[in-house]
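For the sake of clarity, the format in which proteins appear in this thesis is described at this point. The record quoted next illustrates the convention:

___
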Amino acid sequence: SGTSKQIANKYVIQTDTLSLSASDLDLLSTPQTLVSAPGAGYFIQPLTITCIVTWVSTGTTQGNYLYISYDSSSTSHYLVRQRDFMKSELSSTTFVFGGANDTASNGTRSASIDDEPLKVYATVDFTGNFTMKWFTTYQIVKI
């Protein structure tokens, strides 16, 4: 009685979206940000990441790995890795990744994840003609 409680909205579970067109498939040379850096003293705790791929006319023919990580310069440390993402696919496909589907045995990042963005990147710049819509559900956690 007589008091009010507040909670910063960054502590609430939220979902960010990222839409990538067929011209945005260069995920080796141009990693994309799923969730922006949260600020010093905080980290992103992903709960689930969904990618809805709309196949337009061709999948990719390249062998590849798709990564979700706090450090897009590393293929040794990651949160999730998907082998042969959209390779030879001939239809629309949905991928749902949990927070730790395929975490590297040597850890998610070789340093702290304090104030790091969450990125998606790949070992190739994809060929093909498809679009991706990413939904990243996460919470910001105070360290």
Summary: The first strand starts at residue 14 and ends at 20.
